[in-house]
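Before the break, one more example. Copy the sequence into your notebook; we will annotate it together after we see the structure.
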Amino acid sequence: MVLVDTSVWIDHLRKNDQHLQLLLLDGEVVCHSLIIAELVCGNLKNREEIIGLLQALPMAPEIDFEEHLYFVEEHNLFGKGIGYIDIQLLASAKLSQTSLLTLDKRLKAIAVEFSFN
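Here is what the structure looks like once it is written out:
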């Protein structure tokens, strides 16, 4: 299973990412509520359809605030140039034992370090 970051979804919505399309067809994609939350802030064509399709995907587990603080400290993620949502995605990938697909260079480097790619 693959947790797909917002950056990949945006790229896919602009120019139909073939790799993501294959993952979707194979039922290999999981989503996260924060990814959907980010995407709904954008200007989406077929807005209702896209949001509905994203919500229909299996959802990755989420962590609460206390778990977030612990995860940052436990994995020394402070000062790495990634933010709240990125850390949430890393934690979700770890909990669900999924890989993380992203176009964000810093997030990808950390995912590689944790073997989440």
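The CA atoms of residues 61 and 95 lie 7 Å apart. Helices lie at 6-15, 18-25, 33-40, 47-56, 65-74, 84-96, 105-113. Try to locate both features in your own notes.
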